[in-house]
Amino acid sequence: MRETILLELRNKIGEAYRVTLPSLFTSQIFGLFGGTFLGKYFETIRTQFPGLLVVLPGMMGLRGNVFGSMASRFSTMLYLGDLEPSLRDRKVLKEIVLRMLISLIPIVMLWAISVATGVKKNALDVLLIVVTSTILVSFILGYFTSFVTIFSFRRGTDPDSVAAPLVASMGDFLTVPSLVLFILLIERSPEGFRLFNYAMLALFAVVAAISRVRKAEFVELRQVFITITGLALLSTISGSILAKFSGIIQASVILSFIYPSLLSSFGNYGSIIAAKTSTKLHLGEIESFICWKPLTDILALFTTAPVIGTTKLLIGIALVKLTTGMTVPSSAWMIVLTYPFMVLFIMFYSYTVSYFLFQKNIDPDHVAIPLISNNSDIFGTIYVVLMAKLMVGG
Known about the structure:
This is Cation transporter. InterPro entries: SLC41_membr_dom (IPR006667), SLC41_membr_dom_sf (IPR036739), SLC41A1-3 (IPR045349). It is a multi-pass membrane protein. By secondary structure, this protein is mostly helical. The chain has two domains: 1-40 and 245-394, SLC41 divalent cation transporters, integral membrane domain (Tetracycline Repressor, domain 2, Orthogonal Bundle); 43-236, Orthogonal Bundle (Tetracycline Repressor, domain 2), CATH 1.10.357. It is built from 16 helices and no strands. The protein has helices spanning 2-40, 42-48, 51-80, 90-116, 123-154, 163-188, 190-211, 215-220, 222-234, 236-244, 246-251, 254-282, 292-302, 305-324, 334-359, 364-392. Helix 3 packs antiparallel against helix 4 (90-116).
């Protein structure tokens, strides 16, 4: 039995480095790109547009969940023959418009919560920024999702194996830069910003008219909408923590740069374990909570965490020096030591949630992954605050 477990573990470690590590590293690069914009303009956001910090975690998670579910829907439609493998199919534009609607409502609710909790500075500008950003990014991300799903299907590759991580990474890639773009536009040309707002609203009206979205079609997605809205509202916890401790996070320098990448990687590790656990549960391979098969999945992925944590910090330090010329405190190396154990906690949490949801006859595929992704944002934000306190005191 011992030899079987060790052989299984070795095989899974090989798979983790061959298959999973490259996708984790790619996602990390996308997250660090967005983090560069966040870190460079963190003080401006914190002092002039603090409401964005409350909304930011929800925006990042929302886009991954909304367009990840769109990729899954398109995949199913392609296999059933309900969607032509072409971007010109009218259903593509219609689905993108529906996803814009699903995204806009929770975003406005998040903004309203930030105002209600006292974050009122430049509140109207923050609302315009998040609405305009949501329309623009949703349009780009919608067609990116459609292209990835359709292209992989036409190439004979299962879209379910490719689309979701790429879509989530592209969401991270676009979110923060788009917010910064509009902040810079406000500072340099308020009139130009207003004109761009009108242009985005006009674009939304035009594509909505062309797509001919009907109320019944929006109602069909009510379960997705309710789930995503609930998770977006839950993300105000991480947003409020980020806003409250933004000063100490900025003082650490490095954490404001790698914040999006940290949250993305924690969510990725958790989602991978949730997906693997769900498959094993459906196949009857997990007979009890204490079982060696899911444990080997967790341990195999755990071996990749030091690689991801170390490269994340090294690339982050390089980006800080290149964009700001600032020196990162030597205490930042605590991130390398603590990151793998935070990943381990997230993975055990993911396994536990998936297992007990299944015991309650709730399919982990439908609930666990978005829930874990959201919860990982909360845990990740708490982790960032703790690291900032250890690094700079306070």
